[in-house]
Design goal:
Elements: H1 2-33, H2 36-40, H3 42-45, H4 48-90, H5 97-142
Helix pairs in contact: 1-4, 1-5, 4-5
Length: about 140
């Protein structure tokens, strides 16, 4: 039951991180495309400076998303450790079946949290790279 929750939480985290990076990229491109200076001078949109700004914002968004992902994984691991501590305090015998199971579950949860965090961070990097390649392609096409 708890593992299912963690899986859903990690899937939600991946989806949110990917969505966040995509929306940030769209928002920054949108913001730069409709400034009054850009309306007066269409070459400003295609300038290297604007492209560099978009790429920088994409990098910042990816860095922030990866920090959020790492924080989430750390919280999941802390929660798993707290659960093991509670089981240890509640059990009478040393190294009882319930304690061993709780420790196995903790190890499994930590492993999956790390795997999910790594997979989500790779997805964020992939999304950032797509945005940077798109900006580079636009700059190349307009220059």
């Amino acid at each position: 039951m708890k593992l299912n929750f963690v899986t859903r939480l990690s899937s939600l985290g991946r989806w949110l991180a990917t969505t966040l990076v995509g929306l940030l990229a769209i928002a920054f491109i949108w913001q730069g495309a409709f400034t009054t200076a850009a309306m007066a001078s269409p070459t400003l949109i295609a300038s290297r400076d604007a492209g560099d700004q978009v790429q920088q914002k994409a990098r910042e968004g990816a860095r922030d998303a990866k920090g959020f992902i790492r924080d989430t994984a750390d919280r999941v691991e802390r929660t798993a450790n707290r659960n093991v501590d509670r089981v240890e305090q509640a059990s009478d015998k040393d190294n009882s079946f319930v304690e061993r199971k709780a420790k196995r579950d903790r190890d499994r949860i930590e492993m999956r949290a790390e795997q999910d965090a790594a997979r989500t961070q790779r997805a964020v990097d992939d999304t950032k790279n797509v945005v940077e390649r798109a900006v580079d392609n636009i700059k190349d096409a307009l220059n």
